[in-house]
Amino acid sequence: MTGERSEVLQGTLDLMILKTLHALGPLHGFGIARRLEQLSEEVLKLNEGTVYTSLLRLQQQGWIVSEWGASENNRKARFYSITKRGLRQLALETENWERISGVIGRVLSQEGQR
Amino acid sequence: MLSLLRVFTSRLGGFFGRRKADLEFDEEMRIHLHLLTEQGIRRGMSREEARAAARRQFGNIPLLQQSRREMRSIVSIDNLVRDLRFAARQLRRSPSLTSVAVISLALGIGANTAIFTIAKKVLFDSLPVKNPQDLRLLTWVSGHQQPVPPVWGDLGATEEGGLRSTAFSYPVLEELRKKTEVFADLIAFKPISLTVTVDGNPELIDGEMVSGNAFSRLGVEPLLGRPLMPADDAAPGKGPVAVISAGYWAERFGRSSSVVGKTISVNGVPVTVVGVSPARFTGLQMGYGTQIFVPLTMQPLLVPREQLTESGSTSLLNNPQSWWVLILARLRPDVPEARAQAALDLVLRQKAMADLPRARGMDQFHLRLEPGDRGLDNLKSGFAKSLYVLFSLAGLVLLLACVNLANLLLARAAARQREMSTRLALGAQRIHILRQVLTESLLLSTMGGVAGLVLGYLGRNVIPRLLASPSQPAMTVVDFDWPVLAFTAGLSLATGVLFGIVPAWQATRSDGNAALNDAHHATAGHRGMWFGKALVVFQIGLSTILLIGAGLFVRTLANLNHTPLGFRADHILLFRLNPPRTRYSDARMMAFYQQLEEKLASLPGVRSVSMSNIAIIGDGHSGSTFHVSGRPVETEAVRVQTNHVGANFFQTMGIPLLQGRGFDLHDTAASPRVAVVNRALARQFFPNENPIGKTFEADAEDVNAPVEIVGIAADTRYADLRSDTPPTFYLPYSQALVLGRMVIEIHTQAEPASILSQVRSVVASMDRDLPLIDVRTMTEQIKATMSGERIFAQLTSGFGLLALVLACIGIYGIMAYTVARRTGEIGIRMALGAEAGQVLRMVLREASWMALAGVALGLGSALWLARFLGAMLYGLKPSDPPTLAGAAVLLLLIALLAAFGPARRASRVDPVHALRHQ
Q1: Looking at residues B750-768, what average pLDDT do you find?
Q2: By CB distance 3.0 to 4.6 Å, which of B103, B407, B424, B845 could disulfide with B512?
Q3: What is the pTM of this model?
C-alpha cells in the first residue's frame, strides 16, 4: 500500500481530467476522482481536492462548463462537461503529450554502454 | 493572449460573485467528503476511520480554499494590502518625487475637473424636464431678405447666409396649436426682465412668460403651492398670478411658506404668488436662472409694447406684426419628425402670407424643428469655444503631468533594476512585480486625483464667474455631481495605468542575470535610455506649447488694455433705469428723464450728466439702416449703429466734436430732427463731401422723417474693445418718439462711488419703485468686458509656469540619472585625460539637444494649434514672433539651467573613485 507512488506532474492532471470528461461525458468531481483512481491503479498519489483546483482552472479557460444537477442516487452534485473549445485543446495537448513522451521514450530506450 | 483575457474576464466575474462561488465550493467539497466516507464504510471501516481516511485522501482543505480564492480574484486582498504597504513605503522614501508627482497631477486633474464640470453644463446637460429629448425648438429660416417685421428676440444668420430666428407671432402660435395631429404639446415662452417690488424694494429680475400648459406638460412639480395652469393663461390679463423659483424664494422670502398667496408688484401690476418651482428647474433657457414665471397672456398688462404695434394697442397677443414668442414642440411618437415639420411649415407659411401680404422673400421662408432638449440655448454658442480652448490647455497640462510622472517612475524603475532582478532571480513572478509597480503608480495617481478633486471643487465656480461679461451674465451655480466624480476617478485611474505601465514593464523586462552581473555597466548603453529621453523631449514640447499659449493671451490682454477708447473712462458713474411701460407713457418718460437729468446735474460733485440708450462698451448694439437722401436706393441695405443720447453726451463722455455742433436744449420734439455722425460714418458715406447739412433716412425704430446731420464726433469704441469703430449716428433722445430704458452717465469730480447714495435718493424721490440697475463705473464696465481675456491670461500663465517647473524637473531628473549611470564611463574618460570642462560640455550638449528637439516639436505644434485661437487674440497674430521666440529662449535657458547641476557633478567625478567602484 505504501509502495512507490508518483506525484502527479503539474499540468498533467488538467489533461487527464479533460480526457476523462471527453471519454465519459458529464461527471461530478467525485466521479472524476474515482475514475482517475481506478485508471491509475494506485500508481498515482492524488490529493483529491486538487481535482477541484484543476476544474476551476479549466473552467476559467473556458474548456469545460459546469452546472448543478442530481447524481445517480438523487443527490445534489455539480456536473462538469467538456466544451468545443475544450475538445480542441484536448486534441492539441494529446498530440503534444504524445510527441514529448515519444521523445522521452526514445531517449530512455537507448542501449546502455556499461 | 486570448486565453489570458478569458481568464481575466472570468476572474473579474469571480471577483464579484465571490461569496456565492465560495459557498458552492464548500458544498461540493462537503458532498465529496461525504461520498468518500460512505465508500470507506462500505469497505468495512468504522465511521470515524472512514472520515479520517476521506480527509487524508482529499488533502489540505484551507490551503485549497485559499488557492482557489487567489485563482478566482484578480488581486487577493492580502496581496493588495501588501502591495499598497510596500508602495506607500516606497513613496515615503522619496518625498520630493512623491510631492512633485502628486502636486502636478492634482493641478492637472483639478483643472480638468473644474472645466469638465462647466463643460458638462454648457455642452451636454439637457433641461431638467420630462423627456427632454422629445422636445423641438421651432425656428424659422429665410433667405437674405427678412420676411417678417422686426423681431423682438434673437435674429441670427444661417450658414447659407440667410436669416434664422426663434421668434413667432402670437396669432401664428394660435394657428399652430390647432394642428394637434402632428405634435403632443406646444409650449410657448418668452424670457423677459421684470421689475418686481417686494415689501417696498424694487429689483429687476429674470422672468419668463410661459403658456399655461408649460408646467404640467414638462412634468415640473411645484415645491410649494400650485403650478401655472391653462386656466391662468386662458384670456389676456385674466391670470395675475406668478410662480417664483426656489432660488428667488430662498433669497427674497427666506423660504417662508406664507409666500403662497402673497401679492407682489410686477412692473407695477399686482400679481399673486401661487407657487414655488423646484430648485433644479430654472426656466427654459439654458444656463439662466429664471426667477419668476408668469402666464403668457399677461403680456398686455405686464409688458405693454406700444412701439411694436401699428394700431397703438399694447397687446401683442392679437398682433400679427410682432414676432416675439418662442415655441417648444413635443413630438408625437407615432408621427415622424419630417412629417411634423412639413405640416407645421405649411401652417406657418399660410398664416404668415395671410398676415403679412407685403412681405418679401416669402418663398424662402420655412419652419425648421431644431433640438429642444436644451430649450433656448445661447449657452453653447456663447461659451463652447472658450471651453474647448480651456479644455485643451488643461488636457495638455494633465498630459504633461502624466509624462512627468512616467519619467520619474521610469528613472526610479531603472534605479531599482537590481532589486527587481534579485526578486526575479529568487523566483518572483513577473506579473507580481508588474502588479506591485502598477500599484505604486495607481497610489500616486489616486492621491493626485483626490487632491485634484478638492481643487476642482474649489475652482468650479471661479471659471463661470470669470467667463461672464455684462452682456452674458454668469451661469447659475454649477453642481458637482456623480458624472463629475466619475470623470475625475476615471481620469486618475487612466493616468495611473497608462503612465505606470511602461515603467512597470521596463522594470520587469530586465534579464535577471545580466542586470545582476553588470549593475554598473562601464559604458552604460544608451539603450533603454531613449524612452526616457523621448519623454523629456515630449515634455519640453508640451511646455513650449503651453508657454506660447500663455504668451499669446497675456499679450492680448496687454493690447486690449492699451487700446485707445476715444472717450473718457475715469470718473464716470453708470447705471441703468428701465421705467415700466405699465406706468410710463412716452411723454411721461421723456419728462421723467429730462427732470432726472436736471436734478442729477445740480448735485454737488457732479460735473455733467447725460444718458444714452446704449452704454458704450459692453451694452450691446442698436442697429439701423442708413440712406443718404437724394442718392439712389441701395440694393443691399447698409447697416450702421445708432444711439439715442442726452444733450451733454459728448461733453460728459469727453468725445471731441470734430466739426459742426453737438446737441443742445433747442433740439426738441418740435424742432427739425438732427443727428451727429461719427467719423467712421462720415468717411464711409461722405468720402469727398462735407456731411454737415446733408439729410438721411433710417429704419431705426422711431426715425420717420429725414434727419439732418449737424456735427461730426470723433470715433470711439462701440460695443466692445476689439471691434473697430462701426459707422454710428447719434440722435438726441429729446426728439425720440419712443423711449425705453436708458443708461445714465454722470461725470463726477471725486470718486464716482462717493455720490452714489445721493444719486439713489434722487431717483427714489422721483419714483420709489424704480430700481437702479447695473450700477458701476466706466472703468469697471471696461474691465468687466475683458474678464474673459483676463481669466485666459491668468489661467494660461499659471499653466505655463507649471509647465516650466515640470520641464525643469524632467530635464534635471533625466540628466541626473544619465550622469549616475555613466559615472564609470566618465571616470574612464577622465582617467584617459578628458578635462572637467569637456565633461561638463558633454553633458550640457546632450541636454541642449533634447531641449532643442523639444522646442522645435513644440513650436511646430503650437503654430498648428494657435490657428484655432486666432479669433480670441487681439492685436497680434497666432504666429506672433516675439511670443514664439520668447518661449523658445526661455525653455532653452531653463533646460540648460536644470542640466547644469548634474553636469557639474559629472565634471567632478573622481576617476579613481569611479573606477574602483566598478
Answers
A1: 89
A2: B424
A3: 0.69
Q: How close A98 gets to chain B, by Cα (Å)?
A: 23
**Contact flag A50-B59 (C-beta cutoff 8 Å):** yes
Q: What is the pLDDT of residues B838-850, one digit of tens each?
A: 888 988 998 899 8
Residue labelled with grid coordinates 487524508 = B56
Most confident of B82-86, B230-234, B401-405: B230-234
Give the rounded distance of the alpha carbon of B58 from its chain centre: 66
Q: Name B329's bridge partners.
A: B136, B186
SS3 B309: coil
User: What distances in angstroms separate CA B46 from CA A103, B37, B51, B57, B339, one per listed residue?
Assistant: 48, 9, 8, 16, 86
pLDDT confidence tier of residue B239, bands split at 50, 70 and 90: confident
Check residue B620 and give left, alpha or beta (phi > 0: left; psi -120 to 50: alpha): left
| Chain A (7-66) residues lying within 8 Å, Cβ to Cβ, of chain B | 28-30, 33, 47-50, 52-53, 56-57, 59-62
- pLDDT, tens digit (0-9, with 9 covering 90-100), for B711-733: 999 999 887 888 888 899 999 99
| B95-154 per-position pLDDT tens digit | 877 887 888 888 888 888 888 887 887 788 888 888 999 999 999 998 877 777 767 777
Query: DSSP secondary-structure letter at B311?
Result: S
Q: Which three cell numbers stand for residue B843?
A: 553633458
Question: What tens digit of pLDDT does each residue of B383-412 get?
Answer: 778 888 888 888 888 888 888 888 877 777
Rounded Cα–Cα distance for residues B642 and B727 (Å): 9
Handedness of CA B870, B875, B876, B882 (dihedral sign): negative
More confident residue, B12 or B96: B96
Dist CA B276 CA B225 (whole Å): 6
Q: Is the pLDDT of residue B606 over 50?
A: yes
Instruction: Tell me the C-alpha distance between B622 and A74, whole Å.
Output: 91
Partners of A76 on chain B (C-beta within 8 Å) are 27, 31
When scoring B58, B60, B69, B70 by the number of chain A Cβ atoms within 10 A, the one with the most, hence best to mutate, is: B58
Query: Nearest-CA neighbor of B412 among B80, B79, B809, B91?
Result: B91
Q: Identify whether the C-beta of residue A2 lies closer than 8 Å to the C-beta of residue A40.
A: no
Cell numbers given for B553: 493671451
With cell 488694455, the residue in question is B561
User: Cα(B489)–Cα(B495) distance, rounded to whole angstroms?
Assistant: 10
All domains in chain A, ordered by first residue: 6-108 (1.10.10.10)
C-alpha cell at B476: 447659475
